[in-house]
Amino acid sequence: MHQIFNFIWKNYAFFLFIILQFICFTLIIQHNNYHRAAFINKTNDFFGQLTEQVDGVYNYFSLASVNRSLAKENALLREKQQDAFFIADRNFIIVEDTIYQQKYKYRTAKVINNSIHKRRNYITLNKGSQHGIKKDMGVISADGIIGIITGVSQNYATVMSVLNANTKISAKIKRLNHMGSLVWDGVDYRKASLNDIPLHVTLEKGDSIVTSGFSAIFPENIFIGTINNYSFKEADNFFTIEVDLGVDFNNLSYVYVIENLMRHEQQYLENQTLKE
Amino acid sequence: MIIFFRYIISFVLLISAQVVVLNNIQLSGFINPYVYILFILILPFNTPKWLTLIAGFLTGLTIDMFAHTPGMHASACVLMAFLRPYIQALLSGVRDYEADAQPMIQDMGLRWFFTYVSILTLSHHSLLFFVEVFHFRELFVTLSRILLSSAFTIILLLATQYFFYKPKKNIISGKI
Q1: What are the pLDDT digits (tens) for A13-32?
Q2: Which residues of A touch B71 (CB under 8 A)?
Q3: Do A28 and B70 touch (CB under 8 A)?
Q4: Which residue in A78, A274, B93, B131 has its CB near the most CB atoms, within 10 A?
Q5: What domain count does chain A have?
Q6: What is the pLDDT of residues B6-41, one digit of tens each?
Q7: Structure ipTM over 0.85, yes or no
Q8: What is the residue-wise DSSP string for A11-44?
Q9: How far does CA B173 lie from the centroid of its chain?
Q10: How many other C-beta atoms are found inside a 10 Å radius of the C-beta of residue B69?
């Protein structure tokens, strides 16, 4: 023991150097966006594989509830299939045409890492660039929206979830079509708040909040949550609306990654217009 | 005590010169001189190692605050402060220095000072620029940035020595 202390004392400058450099690099990675992204991308592959192994074990415990939710969704989809409809009117013509063009493409992915207790929460998915996942795609589950893809490596992707202080989602009240932006205040993982709804709107508790579709990331009318409570301060022009999120972020397994096939076209046009 | 205040003043002067003037110089897009490192270079020979390291850390952190690059300059400065005693020992045995000598041009001569400054500036700039780009692709761009900026910094450092410090009168040898 004595010799160890002696050794450290003799080379104290070296140890101090290591400690200071450690502090420096912590600062660099925490406070510089580019460096953090690079660091996360490099470590993603390694930790992704590790968590996938661990998750494989945990998976067995949640099989029952996952099955239930998948079965529920299957039933919902079957309801929407053509076979499920009884043809009440025989007076119609079938026309094969090209009016419908695919706009959104859905890919399934599995959540292999998740957090809800931080100020900025991220989710890791088990699909990456080789499965066609790209940055800025939307992520939803059967119960509502989850977040936006921010980092992609070959086999994994990280999602900035709705529970992230940096996330801002363009939302609207389904019944009234008024638009606002949804943010998370960083406290409760079941609640978010909707801003920018003016005071003249008549709200009701239980109104559905859905995506507006303006951001070209999410399609229109994807469920987000319901209004739990609303209030306003005097001398304020906007409501403070508390939203119950539809998704239970503490219990995520399978999600869908949405690719908007016309996003580039829309953004290109919008950018061109701004330039003029 | 007087020496302490002299260093405080030179610290303030160097930091403000760096932040106000030199950080805004970007010759041909990527040559940046970083003259503030002079503060760490000219600390007295008998400064303890821990003090040099802490001083380097704080100097770098101050520049980082102004340049919005938390940690990068601090990291490069700490490396430089760590290497400083070894370079001094390498260039000539520490015992050769006079008691009140400082690592400046008028005490140590041009050749010594030039070698000393070049090695430490290169080490500082190498770490700084590599941490800034944070990858090893485009290696030649980074290397040329390091070399050109170092050359510029070294020239400015030598110039400050001739501008601000008068040669000491050496009574014994009769030189003025």
Answers
A1: 899 999 999 999 888 888 87
A2: 23-28, 31-32
A3: yes
A4: B131
A5: 1
A6: 889 989 989 888 888 887 776 666 778 899 999 999
A7: no
A8: THHHHHHHHHHHHHHHHHHHH-HHHHHHHHHHHH
A9: 30
A10: 20
